[in-house]
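Folding Problem: From Residues to Backbone Shape
Fields: amino acid sequence; protein backbone structure tokens
RECORD BEGINS BELOW THIS LINE
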Amino acid sequence: MAAADDFDSGATDTRVARVYQVTHMSAWRWHHAYETGGRQALETKGAASHRPLSEGELDLLQQLLDLGPAAHGFADQRWTLARIRAVAAEHFDVTYSLAGMSLLLHRLGGSVQVPTRRAAERDDETIRERARAAGRSSRVPGADGASPR
């Protein structure tokens, strides 16, 4: 509420930004919120999630995730942070940021991974033969388990 007092006394956005060590854009947003909604517009809304999940809820979340995405109405079998967040919100009435959900996932023993996109039907030998026939290198990117990049 100190920023509201400063705005009352005629402080500029630049001055408020300097005093509270925020960007000029943040100070402008505060000032705009103050002008349109008064002091209550500057009150903190609190953390996104008002409570962390209990150990029992973490165990239940793990069980829910073990059922797979299809059990929760998702079309494919990929868990994303957004999907896990949606399941947690639906079952436990909590809201997490994607970064917070990533930390929670690590706490459960999981990790955020980006799968290599490779067809299940991929035949590396056929790829090598076709590359040789076309006069290109016979090395197949990713065939040795290394990243193709």
Summary: The chain has a mean pLDDT of 83. The radius of gyration is 26 Å. Residues 55-107 form one domain.
